[in-house]
């Protein structure tokens, strides 16, 4: 008996997997046996029925037993460009009819497909001048005992492919692993399986890859998806259900520290900021751990809310961790926190992978001793070496950029911390139900006053000059700009504009205007120095890849140029555009597009021109992309679900959640006989452990 997730043998230990296949697998994120068995077929091909040659029409698929009758060659005489043609006849029980296999570039088949021998043939046929032909086919020698070979008489999975991998190779390797395991360990209690008529895990996994009938894989998928959703919610909701934390601290009024901070701000809070602050304070003061999502469009003032709410817990001697997805962004947050909060005596620290050596050691000590109040950083905040003295409150900025594993890892740093997730990209309800148990949502709808809506222009090649002129007017007014391109340098592969060449071009175009080039290959120090100069107005424009996408706050920047805008997704475009329009100044966004736009790209650009509203844009994004990705694709940034679909499985999600809650309430330690599979699964093969801890 084996847990699927515990099959950690390297794929390269399989007998026929060499370095080239190993490499292709690794490009698909497949390293271990478990990874490969978790690869979902994208479709299945029914080869269970014989389709004899005599029954076939143009375009139909042959699936039958044939005998090789003769070899011949066609093409120019006396040249080495001649092509092998193999004549076969049907010898299945229903069989009659003949077919020519045209072997373009595969003359070597003369040696392997021998006259008089019997093979299983699979391939799509066509009719040429009365002759039935097939040029893409699989021929597998018939086995001596008359059994079907592995690829015939069955329903076969079709997997996504990379490089030199073929369906045949992946199927072979999946089968090899499946045959090594006598039985996969069960993960769901019998009572749940019976109630929801689910298969055993072992049956489900095997059927999922090689279903005995085309309808049976639905049943397998339901079983696997249920199990996945059940554990996801069990783990997420365990936080919620069990947790009392001492008595309530009375009414949730702002602390003195908060009031002082708010008074000293150069502007009043918006009504929405005040409302969400009330909601957050109430959670912070309650016995239950906070589990709240703060959503608000880019520039709506979420960060400020985060700082003020931090002050609420700091007055009780607690620590706060603030995590942002990039080094750049977390450093900017750390700087603004230092500016705003240090005058109040709050001790701020900045921790990312780039803080090294002695400095790091001292910092870690200070955090462990409680000599730091707010720790700001990237995912380095929850690497194993960091321990907090009294972490009470965890804030995650741009939460959609983090994987679930990373979030769960940070939560494990504290008994039961309060959790505030901030996002400018509203998340689907299905996701808020699953990943976070039951997430409460606070929303900032209105922008700070005096914000002028950004004007967005769609710019074709022909109107490029006009755009450059408009921007030079902004430069004369002392305003700043971003120019964003999709790539760093010209790799010769495509005609995309790149930052390196465009930087030179723009320097000639705007000879007097100071500028800099910034992209992900620069080291952090360089990037920070450039941004600092930009912030201080010493640089007037940045030529950049999408490193400016997240969070950077430069109110004097009024122009955003995005080239090849059709190549960006809606949420990236909205994030990028959100770098301007951050003050009372009129801002402009120029979306430059090329000639051959896909329909989807046209729609995306239209949405951008029409609206500045992040919620509307997120909705349209879902509409344009259709109802979710197909089962098994990775929902990057959100969550890696192999079988369940967040857009289509709402019913299943709810059923699984009910079961998880029922068990958490009645048997939280999983002590009954029936629930003991849960206890074992969690302790021996937890579905949500900190995998890929350092990478994302
Ligand atoms: P978000 O994180 O939601 O994208 P930020 O918190 O970065 O937004 O805020 C964007 C800008 O708006 C910052 O410069 C911030 O100081 C400013 N800001 C925040 N709240 C207000 C307010 N109530 N009135 C005016 N400006 C505000
Ligand atoms: Mg922000």
UniProtKB/TrEMBL annotation:
It comes from Sphaerochaeta pleomorpha (strain ATCC BAA-1885 / DSM 22778 / Grapes). It catalyses: Couples ATP hydrolysis with the unwinding of duplex DNA by translocating in the 3'-5' direction; ATP + H2O = ADP + phosphate + H(+). This is ATP-dependent DNA helicase RecG. PANTHER family: ATP-DEPENDENT DNA HELICASE HOMOLOG RECG, CHLOROPLASTIC. Its EC number is 5.6.2.4. Keywords: ATP-binding, DNA damage, DNA recombination, DNA repair, DNA-binding, Helicase, Hydrolase, Isomerase, Nucleotide-binding. GO terms for biological process: DNA recombination; DNA repair. InterPro entries: ATP-dep_DNA_helicase_RecG, DEAD/DEAH_box_helicase_dom, Helicase_ATP-bd, Helicase_C-like, NA-bd_OB-fold, P-loop_NTPase, RecG/Mfd, RecG_dom3_C. Residues 283-444 form the Helicase ATP-binding domain. Gene3D superfamilies: Nucleic acid-binding proteins, P-loop containing nucleotide triphosphate hydrolases. GO terms for molecular function: 3'-5' DNA helicase activity; ATP binding; ATP hydrolysis activity; DNA binding. It is an enzyme of class 5 (isomerase). The keyword rRNA-binding does not apply. It holds the Pfam family RecG_wedge. Plays a critical role in recombination and DNA repair. Helps process Holliday junction intermediates to mature products by catalyzing branch migration. Has replication fork regression activity, unwinds stalled or blocked replication forks to make a HJ that can be resolved. Has a DNA unwinding activity characteristic of a DNA helicase with 3'-5' polarity. Residues 463-623 form the Helicase C-terminal domain. PROSITE patterns: HELICASE_ATP_BIND_1, HELICASE_CTER.
């Amino acid at each position: 008996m084996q847990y699927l997730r515990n099959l950690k043998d390297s794929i390269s230990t399989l007998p026929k997997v060499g370095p080239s296949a190993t490499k292709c697998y690794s490009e698909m994120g497949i390293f271990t046996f478990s990874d490969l068995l978790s690869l979902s077929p994208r479709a299945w091909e029914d080869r269970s029925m014989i389709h004899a040659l005599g029954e076939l029409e143009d375009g139909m698929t042959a699936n039958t037993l044939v005998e090789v009758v003769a070899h011949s060659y066609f093409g120019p005489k006396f040249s080495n460009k001649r092509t092998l043609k193999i004549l076969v006849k049907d010898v299945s029980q229903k069989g009659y009819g003949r077919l020519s296999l045209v072997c373009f570039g595969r003359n070597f088949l003369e040696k392997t497909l021998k006259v008089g021998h019997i093979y299983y043939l699979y391939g799509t046929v066509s009719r040429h001048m009365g002759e039935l032909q097939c040029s893409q086919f699989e021929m597998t020698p018939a086995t001596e005992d008359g059994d079907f070979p592995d690829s015939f008489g069955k329903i076969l999975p079709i997997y996504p492919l990379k490089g030199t991998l073929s369906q045949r190779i992946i199927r072979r390797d999946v089968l090899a692993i499946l045959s090594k395991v006598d039985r996969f360990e069960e993960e769901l209690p019998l009572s749940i399986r019976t109630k929801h008529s689910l298969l055993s895990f072992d049956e489900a996994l095997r059927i999922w890859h090689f279903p005995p009938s085309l309808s049976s894989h639905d049943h397998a998928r339901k079983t696997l998806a249920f199990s996945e959703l059940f554990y996801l919610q069990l783990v997420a909701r365990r936080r919620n259900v069990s947790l009392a934390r001492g008595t309530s601290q009375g009414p949730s009024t702002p602390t003195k520290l908060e009031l002082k901070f708010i008074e000293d701000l150069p502007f009043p809070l918006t009504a929405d900021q005040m409302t969400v602050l009330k909601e957050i304070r109430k959670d912070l003061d309650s016995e239950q751990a906070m589990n709240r999502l703060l959503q608000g469009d880019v520039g709506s003032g979420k960060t400020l809310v985060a700082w003020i709410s931090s002050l609420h817990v700091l007055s009780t001697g607690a620590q706060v961790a603030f995590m942002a997805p990039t080094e750049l962004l977390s450093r900017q947050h750390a700087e603004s926190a230092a500016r705003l909060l240090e005058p109040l005596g709050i001790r701020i620290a900045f921790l990312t992978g780039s803080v090294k050596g002695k400095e790091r050691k001292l910092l870690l000590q200070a955090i462990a001793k409680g000599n730091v109040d707010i720790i700001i950083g990237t995912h380095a905040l929850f690497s194993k070496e960091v321990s907090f003295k009294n972490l009470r409150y965890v804030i995650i900025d741009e939460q959609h950029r983090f994987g679930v594993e990373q979030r769960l890892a940070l939560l494990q740093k504290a008994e039961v911390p309060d959790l505030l997730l901030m996002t400018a990209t509203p998340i689907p309800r299905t996701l808020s139900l699953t990943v976070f148990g039951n997430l409460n949502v606070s929303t900032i709808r209105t922008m700070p006053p005096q914000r002028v809506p950004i004007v967005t222009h769609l710019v074709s090649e022909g109107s490029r000059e006009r755009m450059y002129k408009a921007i030079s007017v902004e430069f004369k007014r002392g305003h700043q700009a971003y120019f964003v391109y999709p790539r760093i340098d010209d790799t010769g592969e495509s005609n995309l504009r790149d930052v390196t060449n465009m930087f030179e071009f723009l320097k000639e175009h705007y000879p007097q205007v100071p500028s800099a080039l910034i992209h992900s290959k620069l080291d952090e120090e360089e990037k920070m120095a450039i941004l600092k100069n930009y912030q201080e107005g010493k640089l007037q424009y940045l030529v950049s890849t999408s490193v400016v996408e997240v969070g950077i706050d430069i109110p004097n920047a009024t122009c955003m140029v995005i080239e090849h805008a059709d190549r960006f997704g809606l949420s990236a475009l909205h994030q990028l555009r959100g770098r301007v329009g951050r003050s009372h100044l009129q801002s402009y966004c120029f979306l430059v597009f090329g000639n051959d736009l896909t329909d989807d790209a046209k729609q995306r650009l239209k949405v951008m021109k029409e609206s500045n509203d992040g919620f509307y844009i997120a909705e349209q994004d879902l509409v344009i992309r259709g109802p979710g990705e197909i089962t098994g694709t990775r929902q990057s940034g959100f969550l890696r679900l192999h079988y369940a679909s967040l857009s289509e499985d709402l019913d299943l999600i709810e059923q699984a959640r009910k079961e998880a809650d029922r068990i958490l309430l009645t048997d939280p330690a999983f002590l009954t006989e029936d629930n003991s599979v849960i206890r074992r699964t969690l302790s021996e093969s937890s579905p949500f452990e900190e995998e890929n801890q350092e990478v994302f």
